[in-house]
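Put briefly, the fold is written as integer tokens. The lines below illustrate.
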Amino acid sequence: MNSVQRVFTALRGGKPDRVPVLEFVIDKKVAAAAVPGCRDTADCMDRLGMDGVGCGAVFSKVSENPDGTYVDEWGVVYKPGQEAVAHPLSGPVSSLADAREYRAPDPDAAHRLGVLPELVRRYKGRRAICFHHRAAFMWAAYLMGIDNILAGLLIEPDTVSLLMDKVLEANMGVVRNAIRAGAEVIVLGDDYAHNSGPMMSPEVFDEFIKPRLARMTAMIHEEGGFCIKHSDGNIYPLLDSILETGPDGLNPIEPVAGMELSRVRELAGERLCLVGNIDCGHLLPHGTTEEVREAVRAAIAEVGAGGGFIVSSSNSIHSSCKPENLVAMVEAVRKFGAVT
């Protein structure tokens, strides 16, 4: 199999020739150190022999402030830092009137798909083309503030519902365009949980989050793409509801939050592919290459033999991850990943 066939087979729950390995976000400095001379993070993924390349949508800065913060097209104020994703500070929506007046960024803007067309040109047919985006919740949370949206789900549901619908429509437009431009695997990055458990009750999730996630997932499938649902944290109380929305894969199955591959496989059965579980909180930043290799071997031994498993970090290859541990993770998949 080539990489595309390998990833597609795993996402369909089948047995590829070996377990695939993917990352959706790699810090630029880590990529450059892992593969000296690579032109960008996708080139790093390709030259390491990973089975896919990835990118995301672009929402440009519209203004910058003297303190270094900036405002993007969503109207959210961010503080830039070391990581690829800046930290949101505040958003423009605090009332139902604000939600009614709010206009989401144009999904059809010429720059919206970022480097996706270039990745399609370079890698289509050779590496799976992944595109990370979101459905409704997290950007609505950025627009209102996480504490405000969680409270709003209980005391101002009309405001939150209206806002999430506007966010969802814009994001569905972006994802639809991405698939039509050549993206094959859509990774939906709305987080729903802390390490201790979900941010909202299962009942609130089912009423407000689940129907919108299901709409996005259905559209991805209608357009011919695969959907991997990403959420950090302990999502066990939400797992059945997430599965009912129909994703092809679940990521990142975060070990520091108590998420275990074998338990998720037992609960989910063969309904979807498991993607992730290599700890990027401690192991990839601080562990040895031998410890990384052992973690990969153990994960593959735990759930890889039956197919439907893709090795990936438990969130991303962020700036604190050791380049040599990224390399060790990929090499270990090639060593231990043959599916028999």
Observations:
- The radius of gyration is 19 Å.
- The chain has one domain: 3-336.
